[in-house]
Amino acid sequence: MARSSISPTGKEVFFDPDDVIVSKTDAKGKLVYANDVFLSIAGYREGEVLGQPHNMIRHPDMPRSVFAVLWETIQSGREIFAYVKNMTKSGDHYWVLAHVTPSRDAAGSIVGFHSNRRVPSRSAIEQVEPLYGEMRRAEIAAAGPREAIAAGKEVLQRALDAAGKSYAAFIFSI
Fold this sequence. Notes:
Number of helices: 6
CATH class of the domain at 16-120: Alpha Beta
Mean pLDDT: 96
Shape: globular
Number of strands: 5
Strand content: 15-25%
CATH topology of the domain at 16-120: Beta-Lactamase
Structural class: alpha+beta
CATH architecture of the domain at 16-120: 2-Layer Sandwich
Largest sheet: 5 strands, antiparallel
Order of helices and strands: EEHHHEEEHHH
Low-confidence stretches: none
Strand order of the largest sheet: 2-1-5-4-3
CATH superfamily of the domain at 16-120: PAS domain
Radius of gyration: 16 Å
């Protein structure tokens, strides 16, 4: 999928608050399942997404450091909730409150990941968007990819420290 050829339009699209976007990936993050709501809001056909990296819908405004925290958490076997700005095939964007969990085989080994996404509250987006902007600016100013992730995480940690909350408590408080 030629993701780099998609440019953000600045137009936000919405899905029904009663709908749930569902996707499943293998252990490396490649899509193995996407429900009809996912396909409809993202503007893809099933054949275009299966086998592709889940980050094919990552909006460039999203801090890479948020995804670093997400991956560290789920690869350690824990669940995570996160506010995420995704990009559609046409370049429009949509916000979600994602709940991502590891999927395990009978022996307990992580074999993939399952994500349910719902419509977030507007007030949560209004609170998280400036933080994500600050994180992205820190990432962009960094010397390289590893430094960018560290810079974004540092901004996030300062915000968490100022709020006196853990990441999970912060997400649930907004």
